[in-house]
Write a structure and sequence with these properties.
The strands form 2 sheets. A 5-stranded parallel sheet has the order 7-6-5-8-9. Strands 2-1-3-4 form a 4-stranded parallel sheet, sandwiched between helices. The protein folds into 2 domains: about 130 residues, Aspartate/ornithine carbamoyltransferase (Rossmann fold); about 160 residues, Rossmann fold (3-Layer(aba) Sandwich). By secondary structure, it is an alpha/beta fold. It has 12 helices and 9 strands. The two termini are about 15 Å apart. About 50% of the residues are buried. Helix 2 crosses helix 12. Bound molecules: phosphoric acid mono(formamide)ester and norvaline. Phosphoric acid mono(formamide)ester binds next to helix 2.
Length: about 300
């Protein structure tokens, strides 16, 4: 009988905070929660949500996940709390962690998230920062496992901005032994310190490739993945990025070069005709809405382990 396990690390701030074994266990737990073969009860537990940026999927999937565990959520944002008036993170974290059992935080700087974790007496989850989106990667690899059953010989190609989503895919991919290729315009590569960490995890296996050529990156790939060209907080770069990212759209030409059974992923929200064409977004190959659904199951599994 599968049960939530206590994780080695208290917080989930980065895709690096779980071991390979913990990832595989959480994914199994998530699958059982999805098929309703498993029922986990955390009655009366409270998840605090702090969102300094907009969210649909992350917010709602955490709320529903907590409700399915028998618990509840408190949703805070800068305009309706004292956070927006500049109350120090170290005070907010100490207060909220006396009320709540776990906190999920979406903010800009990874260092601010780390500051919350430093002062919180309860587990803190990264619900997206400028640097990483580890909950997204967890659901992404759950979706990949559903399709291919295991991670052996899976090639994941991410085309677009080397942003938070790409950074977490690289780290989680390295821990799960998946070949990850990133194709991005020059100057928009993923975070160099995280690339270095991923290379260390892969050891001497040549399974991480960063390129500026989307055409070579998709050859024989099993998963094609993209995200918006301008992330939240980069709205003023939109026009410039649209020019630079021309040619980095997932379209039928790129898809035809991938494996014939390749699937398409997108973390959403999407801008059709920018990073992905409408035809590919709506195609039979798309697993985009399974991926969005899996946020719920993966986070329910994650929460149940963090609440142990
Ligand atoms: N993919 C994702 O995190 O979506 P939201 O911004 O809607 O939460
Ligand atoms: N890279 C995007 C992801 C949104 C879920 C952003 O940070 O806005």
């Amino acid at each position: 009988m599968l049960k939530p396990i206590k994780l080695v690390k208290k917080h989930f701030l980065s895709s690096l905070d779980l071991s390979t074994e913990e990832y595989l266990y959480i994914l199994r737990l998530a699958e059982k929660l999805k098929t309703k073969e498993l029922n986990i009860n955390f009655k009366d537990k409270v998840l605090g949500l702090i969102f300094d940026k907009s969210s649909t999927r992350t917010r709602v999937s955490f709320q529903v996940a907590m409700s399915r565990l028998g618990g509840t959520t408190v949703d805070l944002n800068p305009t309706t709390s004292q956070i927006g008036r500049g109350e120090p993170i170290r005070d907010t974290a100490r207060v909220l962690s006396r009320y709540c059992d776990v906190l999920a935080i979406r903010t800009f700087k990874q260092t601010d998230l780390e500051e919350y974790a430093k002062w919180s007496s309860k587990p803190v989850i990264n619900a997206l920062t400028d640097l990483e989106h580890p909950c997204q990667a967890l659901a992404d690899f759950m979706t990949i496992k559903e399709e291919f059953l295991d991670f052996n010989d899976v090639v994941l190609t991410f085309i677009g901005d080397g942003n938070n989503v790409a950074n977490s895919l690289i780290l989680c991919g390295a821990l799960l032994g998946v070949e990850v290729r990133i194709a991005c315009p020059k100057g928009y590569e993923p975070n160099s310190a995280l690339i270095k960490k991923a290379y260390e995890i892969y050891k001497n296996k040549n399974l991480l490739k960063i390129t500026n050529d989307p055409h070579s990156a998709v050859l024989g790939a099993n998963v094609l993945y993209t995200d918006v060209w301008s992330s939240m907080g980069e709205e003023n770069q939109k026009d410039e990025k649209e020019k630079v990212f021309n040619g980095f759209s997932i379209n039928s030409d790129l898809v035809s070069k991938a494996d014939k059974d390749a699937i398409i992923l997108h973390c959403l929200p999407a801008y059709r005709s920018k990073e992905i064409t409408d035809e590919i977004f709506e195609s039979q190959k798309s697993r985009i809405f399974d991926q969005a659904e899996n946020r719920l199951h993966a986070q329910q599994a994650l929460l149940s382990c963090l609440l142990q």
